[in-house]
Specification:
The chain is about 25% helix and about 30% strand. Strands 7, 8, 9, 10, 11, 12, 13 and 14 form an 8-stranded antiparallel beta sheet that branches. Strands 1-2 form a two-stranded antiparallel ribbon.
Length: about 220
């Protein structure tokens, strides 16, 4: 592929994204990029991304997100296997002869059978840290009914928030999992402006995949 030559700064920017994705298998956040290059504004991040997009090093996905061009992913070894191979059986009782066999792979579909109804959002902020959800994590959501006390993603007045949701006579109460943050109260007369985007079913970060615990176990 014959792309336009990058400037020195653009190459440093592109190399940072490549190295980060090799190590973490996800893109860095705008905040992480800005801190790495000591940018004072996220606009500098956007400008570099637009330059790489224009020169063909990045592409825009169907989800209106940016990603590394497939040719570069293949050449730089960024492609990952689709699952974890299951190589046989192991006893969890008495000792027995090892059994080696190709038993397929563990994939996301193994952990989350309803993958077609699931989507992810990346967390920005620390209001849910006591629920084990941190800045930069990916929360997994499904378009399910959110019951009293469930964690869910809410869209209100053009802004989104991930909180534990409670319904009462005073309205909708969005409770953070961090005592440094206050509850958000939405009065009943503006309920029609509130949209529940999805129910939290788990999250993904550098330590692995974490499924949501049943309420009794989580409390």
């Amino acid at each position: 592929m014959d792309n336009a030559q990058l400037t020195r700064k653009q190459k440093e920017f592109f190399d940072f994204i490549i190295d980060y994705k090799k190590e973490h298998d996800v893109w860095p956040t705008y905040r992480e990029i800005a801190e790495a290059f000591n940018y004072k504004s996220p606009n500098s991040v956007t400008q570099n991304i637009q330059a790489l997009l224009k020169k063909g090093y990045l592409i825009k996905t169907d989800d209106d997100e940016y990603d590394i061009h497939p040719n570069y992913e293949e050449n730089l070894g960024l492609k990952k296997n689709s699952g974890i191979p299951v190589r046989g059986l192991i006893a969890a009782g008495y000792l027995q002869e090892a059994v080696e066999a190709d038993l397929g792979q563990i994939t996301l579909e193994t952990l989350f059978p309803n993958m077609d109804d699931m989507f992810a959002l990346r967390v920005s902020g620390m209001s849910m840290k006591d629920a084990g959800i941190y800045d930069g994590d990916f929360v997994l959501l499904m378009d399910n009914d959110v019951k009293e006390g469930d964690i869910g993603a809410v869209l209100y007045n053009g802004e989104t928030s991930l909180k534990r949701i409670f319904y009462d006579k005073n309205g909708l109460r969005l409770e953070p999992a961090n005592e440094e943050y206050d509850d958000i109260i939405i009065k009943p007369d503006v309920f029609e402006e509130v949209r529940i985007i999805g129910k939290y079913i788990g999250h993904v970060n550098r330590s692995g995949i974490h499924k949501a615990l049943p309420r009794k176990l989580a409390s």
